Amino acid sequence: MVIMRIELFGLENIPIVDGSSDISKIIKEAIEEQGCGLNHGDIVLIAETLISKAEENFIKLNELVPSQQAIELAEKSGKDPKLVEAIIQQSNEIVEVGPSFIITETIQGFVCANAGIDESNVGDGLATPMPKDADKSASQIREFLEKEFGEEIAVIITDTQGRAFRFGAIGTAIGCSGISPIWRRVGEKDLYGRELETTEIATCDELSSAASLIMGQADEGLPVVIIRGFDSFDKLRDVNSNIKPVLMPKEFDVFRK
């Protein structure tokens, strides 16, 4: 009997980063210091806040002047008008407003709460929006680490997002490189020999959720997690991958019609 097993571990000694930081080199040095190396098929998952900080992708909330729309949405949501103005600027569309949240389609195409803006783990008066191009960042880091360690790997940029009809946030992929974000299993057989007709697995989201258990949401200080032993890596290997296949076109989104 073959026992399937997967291993997850956080990289320690990741420093506080800023615009002068090279994330690729920081991760390489942390891997070497921890002595874990990189193996074929390893998946490196990186919290989006780390990417935004290194890219100096900050929002200075105190410098924003709320528009009339921001003031009105702030009254409905109970949020600070300056934060709401930041949400508007980072969005293509306001989808829904509720108590303590504003659902938007971000400028990157994600539908999530508050345009994915994060006020945690940054200085006072600052917030971090989603990375400008998480796929590009993932690709650059993957190519550097593959060259340095001589192994085929994948890199996923993660964010913490809520879900429709369920309480609680989970880790979600917002950028990827080296692995397909979707595992299309149409045509395979189930245990009873029936052919799968519609099954598609959001693999990068599942991996991100697993990594989120180690990254945490408070003061854990583990923004980079390595997943080792994912035995479907070779099947899903794709050096040209990006996160776009997981984004549902608006015409298929029945909740926005």
Describe the structure.
By secondary structure, the protein is an alpha+beta fold. The protein folds into 2 domains: 1-57 and 131-248, 2-Layer Sandwich (60s Ribosomal Protein L30, Chain: A), CATH 3.30.1330; 58-128, CofE-like domain (CofE-like fold, Alpha-Beta Complex). The protein is 28% helix and 25% strand. It is built from 7 helices and 13 strands. It has helices spanning 23-34, 48-54, 68-77, 81-89, 134-149, 203-215, 233-236; strands spanning 7-10, 43-47, 59-60, 91-98, 101-106, 111-113, 126-127, 154-163, 166-179, 183-184, 200-201, 224-228, 237-238. The strands form 4 sheets. A 6-stranded mixed beta sheet has the order 1-12-2-8-9-13. It has a 3-stranded antiparallel beta sheet with strand order 4-5-6, covered by helices on one side. A two-stranded antiparallel sheet has the order 3-7. Helix 1 crosses helix 5 and helix 3 crosses helix 4 (81-89). The longest helix has 16 residues, at 134-149. The protein is globular. The mean pLDDT is 91.
